[in-house]
Amino acid sequence: MLPIGATIGIVGGGQLGRMLGLAALDLGFRVHVFAPPDGDNVAFAIAHDTVAAPYEDAAAMAGFAAGVDVLTYEFENVPVGALEGIATAIRPAPAALLKAQDRLVEKAFLAQCGLPVGPHLPVASVADLDAARAQIPDGFLKARRLGYDGKGQARITPETDSEAAFAAIGGAPAILEERIPFVAETSLILARGADGASRAYAMTRNTHEAGILRRTDFPSPIDAALATTAERWVADLCEALDYVGVIGVEFFVTGDPAQPLIANEMAPRVHNTGHWTMDGAATCQFENHIRAIAGWPLGSTQRTADITMVNLIGDDIDELPAHLQNPAALPHVYGKRETRAGRKMGHVNFIASPVDFD
Amino acid sequence: MLPIGATIGIVGGGQLGRMLGLAALDLGFRVHVFAPPDGDNVAFAIAHDTVAAPYEDAAAMAGFAAGVDVLTYEFENVPVGALEGIATAIRPAPAALLKAQDRLVEKAFLAQCGLPVGPHLPVASVADLDAARAQIPDGFLKARRLGYDGKGQARITPETDSEAAFAAIGGAPAILEERIPFVAETSLILARGADGASRAYAMTRNTHEAGILRRTDFPSPIDAALATTAERWVADLCEALDYVGVIGVEFFVTGDPAQPLIANEMAPRVHNTGHWTMDGAATCQFENHIRAIAGWPLGSTQRTADITMVNLIGDDIDELPAHLQNPAALPHVYGKRETRAGRKMGHVNFIASPVDFD
To answer: What CATH superfamily classification does A119-178 receive?
Structure first.
């Protein structure tokens, strides 16, 4: 167990780093944050010390790591090269980053851990894409690396021009994923401690718009037995990586009894679909991530209330005063300087009613 | 409504200021903290800017106030003189400090607002004390100013030596309070918004040891009708002060149906007996204090869980690892550098089971 007063190092300066930092402070830790100088680094505002340098700056990263007792990240696209040779404990271990940074590697890993994944094919050229479309006529072309919130993706239908689609994602190495005609989306947020014990949160119904999470709510779109299966899958996946911290795995709910869930992607970090836990679970995902990487026992993940989480994206932040007319609205505001379309500015958890403990 | 990004100024650098600051950050505010340079100012660690100066330094206070959008305090003994002439909004208004800083004034004010108070007499000398003991043979001699956590108090029984007792509290102006043979202690934590709307939290059973709060738990030692009466009293008291923010009023539960509650003291700030709200109420006392002083609507004070709050005092902090073996233990650690007997180092909320909304 890291002692009270130890220093947590967070790589990444966004809202996830900020909420991780706030949780760490409430546990009595010190917080250092590393982030690129060109970002709106809202996590800097809650840190005792900060380093502003590109992720690729291995010397800056090494200096940062030397000043902390454990290093974690809020962002799965941290270059693994910059973390090599660092003596400080890195949790989750960079092996998880290697799996999550490349969609093709990720799909293979998910499948290897027993999670069902949808049909997909690698695409390195327009010719590859033409060939792949013979097998997968209806799908999404996605860059293998550096995509998030729907970026680096192109819709593929029989009418799409291959050349334009490949150009739209920057001509980068990609995969063509078959479109899954889902009835709902869900995710499994699981915390795994340094001792290997894990605790899962209740699975929400997730709603995306334009590739960005819009809201999560309850009831879950899947039954308890299926949730237990998903929890087993993700626990196995974590065991394969000797994972320490919180992980999020997104699933499509197919409505097909033969294959009711298909894993979409994994994020080796706290996850937007777990923000409801700040007001609806005994211990929130941010605190459990910090507890895990500090070698502390995990707190209960028990759901305590019916919660609807609504993201405030771009100008949505201007609706905050209206939301606050509802005393059940519990806001979390990230403190970003500039409102931009598609930018996550905050979220509101609407608490409805408490739920019985098991 | 103060806009997101506005600056909250907190006077006082202890754990209450720290938890107020963390709540303000999560709402998207900036936080400045003013505290004396000789304290273990754990609130400094979460602030964007700090001023270290004695409370009496009016120039430093004026400079601090000029840099914030609203000024509040975590500590009721801030000298009111240092706040005079400040143009920045001060919430709660210093009138509340004037009532709370002098036990004799406080008792008169509580009574004026309709709250039952116990028998008490002013004592300015040993001769006064001798005279008062004729009417109140069994009680506590308490300095009128600057007492907290049982400091500045002396027990008075028929055997006590008046001169020694008066010397023990420093020979300062005092009151002799009759000992109330209570069956339990409780408190009413109420938030009042800038619009005059108020919301009360559920009343806990409070247990003190050696003058320091040890724990709060449920069920409340009083029934719902009596809690409603207490809420009305405190709402009236707040209206008399045009109070904005969270207030705590402590009561003795007498077991006497004719006079079931006797008000002990008021604290014009967030209160230790409200720490359970961090994990057991929809909106915690710290967030509601910040919402109130920022002119935001209050959040629901609805209790969501059965919670036992245990203070970690002095060496109790060493028991934290043992507490954490229980996944229902939700710790809040203040980050104090030095452990000292009687010093509040943190608290743990133990979550038992959720409670139905009304």
So the answer is: ATP-grasp fold, A domain (3.30.1490.20)
Q: What is the pLDDT of residue A298?
A: 98
Check residue A79 and report its DSSP letter. -
Task: Return d(Cα B113, Cα B188) in angstroms, integer.
Answer: 15
Q: What is the spatial distance between Cα A345 and Cα A338, in angstroms, rounded to a whole number?
A: 9
Q: Is A266 left (phi over 0), alpha (psi -120 to 50) or beta?
A: beta
Whether residue B351 and residue A282 make contact (CB cut-off 8 A), yes or no, is yes
Residue spans per domain, chain B: 7-90, 119-178, 184-354
Considering the domain B7-90, what is its CATH architecture? 3-Layer(aba) Sandwich (3.40)
Rounded to an integer, the average pLDDT of B83-107 is 95
Among all residues of chain B, which has the CA nearest to that of A355? B354
pLDDT above 70 as % of chain B: 97
CATH topology of domain B184-354: D-amino Acid Aminotransferase; Chain A, domain 1 (3.30.470)
E strands within B237-279? 245-253, 261-267
CB contact under 8 A, B305 and A355: no
Helical segments of chain A, H only: 15-26, 58-66, 94-100, 103-112, 126-135, 162-168, 224-241, 277-280, 285-293, 320-323
* ipTM summary value: 0.94
Judging contacts by C-beta atoms under 8 Å, the chain B residues touching residue A354 are 304-305, 354-357
pLDDT surpasses 60 at A331: yes
Contact list, A30 vs chain B (CB under 8 Å): 45, 335
Residue in A30, A291, A297 closest to B325 by CB = A297
8 A C-beta contact, residue A333 and residue A346: yes
Q: What is the pLDDT of residues B115-156, one digit of tens each?
A: 999 999 999 999 999 999 999 999 999 999 876 666 688 999
Is B299 within 8 Å of A330 when comparing Cβ atoms? yes
pLDDT digits (tens, 9 = 90+) for A256-299: 999 999 999 999 999 999 999 999 999 999 999 999 999 999 99
CB atoms within 10 A of CB B117: 18
